[in-house]
Amino acid sequence: VKEVANLSLVGSACEVVSAADASSKESQPCLSSVGDAAEQGVQSVTQAMASCVQPVLATLEPHVAAVSEYAAKGLDKLGEKLPLLPKPVEQV
Fold it and tell me: What are the record keywords, sorted (predicted)?
């Protein structure tokens, strides 16, 4: 997940979405309230899920590490075949 997030295309796309979100919250106060409530709900659910899943992840850690390494190699190969991935959205 970290390697995907570090791709310029993904990072710049997230920045564009974040800017659009901030702009819509500024221009529409009712959207801001609803969006803030939704974000807080998602954060609460995420925190609850993380605490429940943590013991399972600790058990599966060696397997997750192996899958992560395999996924990173696959992502590298994908990056070689798709030269758009390292570019920001503006250049694509």
Answer: Lipid droplet
